[in-house]
Amino acid sequence: MLLAVLAGFILAPVWLLCGRFTRTNFSWAPSLLPAGLFLFFLSYLPQVAGGPLAFAYEWIPSMGVNADMRLDGLSLLFALMITGIGAGVFLYASYYLKGDPHLDRFFCYLSVFMAAMLGLVLADNLIVLLVFWELTSISSYFLIGFNNEDPKSRKNALMALSITGAGGFLLLTGFVLAGVASGSFSLGTLLSSPGLLRDHGSYLWIVLLIFGGAFTKSAQFPFHFWLPGAMVAPTPVSAYLHSATMVKAGIYLLARFTPVLGGTDLWNNTLVIVGGVTMLFAAFHAIFRKDAKEILAYTTIAALGMLVFLLGIGTSEALLAAGVFILVHALYKATFFLVAGIIDHETGTRNIEQLGGLRKVMWPVAVAGVLAALSSAGIPLTYGFIGKDLIYAATLGNWPLTAVAVLTNILVLYSGFQVGWRPFAGKLPETYSHLHLPDARLWLPAIILALLGLVYGIAPALTHPLIEPFANALYGGAGVSLAIWHGFNLVLLLSGVTLAGGFLLYWFYRSPGNTWLQKLQSAAPQQLIGKMGNAVLRFSGFYTRIMHNGNLRSYVSLIIIFIILLLGTRLLSGVHLSFDRRSLTSDIRLYDVIIFVIILAAIWKSLSTSSRITAVASLSVVGYCICLFFVIYSAPDLAMTQFTIDTLTVVLFVLVLFRLPRFLRINDRKVIWRDGLIASLFGLLIAVIALGALNEPTTKETSEFYAENAYLLGKGKNVVNVMLVDFRGFDTMIEITVLTIAALGVYSLMKLRIGTENKE
Amino acid sequence: MRSIILKTASNYLLPLLLLFSVFILLRGHYRPGGGFVGGLIASIAFVLHAFANGLKDTRKLLRFPPGGFIPVGLSLALGSGLVPMFMGKPFMSAEWLSMQVPIVGSIGTPLFFDIGVFFVVIGITLTILFTISDSIL
After folding, report:
1. Partner-chain contact A640 B116, CB within 8 Å
2. How many structural domains comprise chain A?
3. Which value does ipTM take for this structure?
4. Residue B114 lies in domain
5. Tally of structural domains, chain B
6. N or C of chain B: less Cβ packing under 10 Å?
């Protein structure tokens, strides 16, 4: 199971390495991956009917984070959609992007994304789930921004990444809270004892944070705007991300947590309101659009709103309706995107007003488009009809909800026909008469998905093995039976109203364009986010100019002032320091005094000299004198190191100073006093701390441990060295890495400067 | 800064100092010394040579850019940490051979770790010093 999840990650670099083949003749090969995985997951269908399956894999057992996998009805439904529609999209892309020089790269991203999605829906551990969640955000960034020469593409990809990334932060916080509150990061544990979180004090925060994650990912109002922007991606990506995967991750999360967190007023009301507003808002927006992909983007948001809305109603009928609608939507929306992509690919436009009569030149595509439109409209004998019936049945008894659902569906029907019917109906424009049917790799996935919608609609019992475990996972329901005919009742009447309303709208209404909608743009959340981004940029520019002004001396003084403030406040706020004056003055010996005098003289010399070299040399005298102290007070290791370092520092200084002017009086008196004050304050502070440290008992538990065990465990007699290479070897490892980075920094800085000098 | 005396002396001092640095490196386990100090001493040896003979000669003597020491050292240190993992122990646990080798003493992963530190320090110091003097002289 773990291998199945990781297969995409493992194979992704393979597509790149064999780029020469995946780009050209063997571009169909990557689609074997999702197809194989689809069959693999399909084989679990009978087993899952018996209850959730768990697969245990250890990852970080010491922190309670294991890569356990959990396969129940909910995960299986998603896994099948991810791999099944994935197979179609892979195949479709192999022709759609034929000749693209980066096709191998595309498959690499797509594989990573698919694997991340699979991991997301299968992970049992919250932390693992979050890791995959972030991976989907990151890999979708590459997919959305695939046409990276286009600045708009880059911008929108970044927008999608920042919105979903921010949601990831919220989710992380929510998961950590949930984990701390319940004492377990395992979904299995949470699901088996739902009261654990629902009755906990931090329930409110956990729910809000998880909502934050789900709403950003699933493009709920007011975070919806990244989704239409993401339409800059190549169509196969849109088809994949927005029908079955990326945006459904938020829905998955909400559905997954429904048994754990759901059933409270907070949960239900928030979801109903947010979902309701989103679906109405987006469905309304969709009817003003003329670009096929934009229409699809908004109807996708509407469908996501519908799902959130259904999860919010939370009754068993509503949850069942959500399950069916997830499948319905995945089937018809993927078809729509694939069809829109074919039209775009063949005619070069996605403006539905310029299209018509295409049925005459590409009839299989027309069949797929029309079937999808019918399913999205909910015409009887399509799977969409079953889904819509269930939705209406779920809202019955609360008329505002029913009204919202009906209105949304009318608008969605209109939009669906705009995309799936209109390009194929009517007269074929002259310009397109030379077109002919494209390669089967383009239209076959679309028509298979569309036909599935029809087959399931005629025989809904076929989907029972899929929907029953789903219902079982969400609300413990068993014995689902979907049927076409429920007799004459209110639901059927509502369906009729929807159809009539939708067709009337399609007949009489034509989009006036975006005239007055554009005026609202300045207040749209999208603009606000953009402004916020610019404000952050301006602020960081301002901050950098102040803190990073290029004057070395101001850097040093800033750092030192900061340390003074930090240590000073700590000292003043009541750290007790006591000095034993007698022990400090008792054993001063002659050579201590001599060294001290030398140090004083060297300091005086370095302050009074007018030559830089002399100043550096006298400073190094101070350093060597300190080495002598180390030698006298038995720290030979420190002394050796300090001695060599001091020598090298002087060498470095001499190298640099060699080129500088002999001495420049840039200081006026004020600056000298200021620097002097900073320096003496710092010196005083360090002296006080050093004296205070003397009073601490010298034999501490840790030093005793090292002294005793250096030879026993580390097999060395030099305790300092054994600590460096053995006990704290990991620290040393990281330290030498940091040193390496510093050296690389110096190297590149200096070489860069030489490079620009040469150019001038 | 060319002086014949320094130049002649540095030719003899370089191997001596390098030997001394290795000595410091190896004795680190029992008495004062170790990879870090050893590496610094070795770099001083090269710096002294560069002062006396010019940077070009030192580079020629080294035959490869001093930065080359860094990856060698880093991989030695990392490798010495990885070896115990093949024996089923946690990363960076010390493994010692039971036999004693003359001069070097006992051989174990910490020794190789220290040698790694030694190389990294040489590489870093020489890279920084050489680049800076390159851009100045």
Report:
1. no
2. 4
3. 0.86
4. 4-136
5. 1
6. N
